[in-house]
Each structure stands twice: as C-alpha cells, then as structure tokens.
Amino acid sequence: MAEQPARPVPEFGREHDHAVAARASPTKRLLALSLPALLIGVGSALGLIVLDLAALALEDLLWEVLPATTGIDPDGAGWIIGILTGAGLATGLIVRFAPGHAGPDPATESFFPPPMPLSTLPGLAAAAILTLATGVSLGPEAPIITINVALAVWICRRLVPKIPTRLVVLMVVTGTFGALFGSPVGAALLVTSVAATIASKELLWDRLFAPLVSAAAGSIVMLLSHHGSLALPLPAVELDILPDLGIAIVVAAVAIVVGLGLLYAFPLAHRLFHRWRDPILPLTVAGLLLGILGAIGGPITLFKGLDQMAQLAEQADDFTPGQLALIVLVKLAALLIAGAAGFRGGRVFPAVFIGAAVGVLAYALFPGIPLTLAISAGVLGICLVVIRDGWLSLFIAAVVSGDAAMVPILCMVVLPGWLAVARLPEMRITPPEGHGANDAATPARPA
Predict the structure, then answer these.
(1) Is the CB of residue 173 less than 8 Å from the CB of residue 112?
(2) Rounded CA gap, 401 and 405, in Å?
(3) Residue 56 to residues 37, 134, 223, 284, 339, Cα–Cα distance (Å)
C-alpha cells in the first residue's frame, strides 16, 4: 500500500516524535525478547543438569557399585586402565555408528557451534556421558552447548521464527555458560567480547540484553540446584601489592609456558589420532593411554577436575613438589590425548585444574608465597592460552580465588599475559573444507 503523505508538523515536534520512536522501538524489541531469552536460559541449565545427573549415575555405577560388588579397588591401576580403555572403545563405536557420528569433532569446535540435526543428539549425549563418567579429562561445556543450541534453534524456528538463528545461538551459549559457572558474569564478559566485534548502531547494552537475560536465568537455576562451584576453599589474602604482583606475573608466565606446550602439541596429536578413517581403534588406544596416565597420576588426575581441584587446594601442604609436577604433566598429557583423539567434551575445566596445579606447585617450591595468589595466577595464565579470551580468563581466575582482593592483581597480570598470547594460534583445529567446517568462529550476531 502506498505510503500516505505526512502532514507538516513543527520541526521540534518531528524531532521529538523521532526520538520517542527511537527509544520505544528498541525497548519494545528487548521486552519481546525477554521471555524467549529467559526460557532459553532455563532450558540451557536444565540440559546441563540432566547431562550431569546421567553422568553421575553412570560414574557411581562404574566407580562405586561395581568395585564394591566385585571387591576390586577402584583406585587400582587395573580398574582405572580397564574403565578408560572401555570408554575409548565405547566412544569409538558411538562415533562410528551413531547418526551424525555423535556430532562434529570437538577439536574443531568453538564456543559458538552451528545447529546440528536432532538425530545427532542421542549419540552426542551418550558419548558426552561416557566422557564425564569414566574419568576422561574433559568437561561438559562443548557437548552441552551443541545439544542446547540444536534444541533451542529447532524450537525457536517453529515457535518464534522471527528471532534470528544467530541470536538464538548467542543466548544459548550465554545461558549455558551462566549455568556452568553459576554466575552470569562470565557469560557477560564473553558476550561483551563478541558484541565489541559487531559493527552496529545499537547501544552495547541493547545488544547484550537478551543474552544476559539468558545467562542470568541459567545461573539462577544452577544456584537453586546447588551444583558445584569453581570457587576453591582458599585462605584469605593480605596482599603486599608490589611483591605479590611480581609473584603473580611469574606464576602466570609459567602457566602460559605450560599452556604453550599443550597448544603446539595439540595439532600434532590430532593428526596422529585422525590418520585412520575409522575412529574405533584410535579412540580405544587413546582410552588405554588415558588409563595408563590415570594409573600413574592417581585418581586426582581423572575426570574434568572440578572436585579434584578442590582436593588439591585443601591438601596443598600434603603434596611434594615432585608429586605436583607429576600431576601437572599427567593432566597435560591426558587433556592433550582426550581433546585430540575425539572424546566428546570440552577443554576449559581440565585446563583450570592444570592452572591450579601449577599454582600449588609454585606454593610448594616457595612456601612463603600466598597459596590463593599462586593458584589464581596459574589459572589465569593457562586459561589465556586455552580459552583465548582475556575477560573470561580473568573471570575464571577471580572466581577460583574466591577473594575480591585478588581482582586488582589479576587485572594487572592479564595485561602482559594477553600481550604474550594474543598473536598465538587458537587451540582449535580448522576442519578441511567440505567436512563440516562450521561458522562457529563467526559470533552469533544479535538482531
């Protein structure tokens, strides 16, 4: 229909009407997005809870019920090697025969995956549960984000098709991160980095609004469910600013060097494990190697590392430097093998464990330094390499310390740390063209 000519109005009135429309239109749009964002955040957290509960049930069966029934020591080398070798074989069978091959290779994925077909999700969920329950050194973030994205996009396309897919992906990622960390702050910092790369005339907080609603909803659900937290039981610190700043920089630098070893070995290990088209043999061999590493390093080097990190912090005075160095090396090798071989899981949580272990090692070597300072600096350094996001790395290190007094020190340490890692390659494999290369590296853009 042809547009009717507007009646002439005073210039002031026209400007006023335009200003009101400019204010009202974004506000109405954000209000309209609030309910879908809230539901996506709640759904993302519930997806994580269901995955965790399934993994905990299988973990209890494998590591408590069966050993008690058979009289076998679950901490013994034979049981650890057997469980992890079986996990590799079972994961290989799922990846080989499940529809969609249990999703794309996690080594090629970023935090913003494209939506997968729903037929892929049962296999991916089964493989992720195996990873979490059997002691593989990976966390839940990669598979649960992929599962939540696929479900949310499928639902939104049918119920609210006007919401762009990229915005749905962004809300799912922030909702899931809010749930993973029990706080919307980490998700807020992650999405702020994304929003800063988008050329838009929108105000920053307008672009962040719906993702932050989702992140807040996801974190509240997790807090209500009393799931585990990244915060460690660490002593409060009375900082001596300049000396402690120097200590933190040195510990973070050591953690960055440790991370660099992982970063540069990752593509080599990935090529080695993917020389065969059939994933069953390489994943079984990888499971065997993980079992041997677990037998060497002990139970503290198994699983994603959240509970084990708390144990490490609580018993920091009971470990010798040699034991801690072994724990760091074993966990590094386990993360390298698990991440490169194709186990379905994420690298953030085991990397945080490694950073904490580097901090405890520094404390064991130099008992005069504050334990909280050493652990948070170690976590910051390794996360800068593995995650490649200064804001998110800073947030994780601050949460692990559980001490607001650490924030100014960490803010200073992250600056030289970022200069050291900013031009390094990502810890991610670029898939060959035509083999499911995704556009995950392109952040979801709010509409």
Answers:
(1) yes
(2) 9
(3) 28, 10, 18, 22, 21
Both tokens assigned to 59: 């973990």
Place of tokens 């979490």: 132
Extract the tokens encoding 157. Answer: 């396309």
Q: How far apart are CA 307 and CA 232, in angstroms?
A: 9
Question: By the 8 A CB rule, do 444 and 364 touch?
Answer: no
Using the structure block, give the residue that is written with the tokens 């939540």.
Answer: 148
Cα separation, 336 vs 427, whole angstroms = 11
Give how far the C-alpha of residue 154 lies from the chain's centroid of Cα atoms, to the nearest Å. 23
Tens of pLDDT along 139-174?
999 999 999 999 999 999 999 989 899 889 999 998
DSSP assignment of 414-427, as one string?
HHHHHHHHTTSPPS
Contacts with 395 (C-beta within 8 Å, 6 or more apart), sequence order = 181, 185, 186, 189
- According to DSSP, the residues that pair with 346 across neighbouring strands are 139
- Beta-bridged to residue 139, according to DSSP, are 346
Does an H or E element contain 353, and which?
helix 348-365
CA distance between the termini of the chain:
26
Buried b (16+ CB within 10 A) or exposed e, 251-260: bbbbbbebbe
Q: Six-digit token pair at 127?
A: 């493989």
The identity of residue 310, as a single letter, is A
Query: Is residue 233 exposed (0-12), middle (13-18) or buried (19+ Cβ within 10 Å)?
Result: exposed
**What pLDDT was estimated at residue 202?**
64
Cα separation, 24 vs 10, whole angstroms: 21
Q: What gap in Å lies between CA 270 and CA 272, rounded to an integer?
A: 5
Q: Output b/e per residue, 56-73; b: 16+ Cβ within 10 A.
A: eeebeebbeeebeeeeee
pTM of the model: 0.87
State the average pLDDT for the chain. 85
Q: Enter the DSSP assignment of 63.
A: I
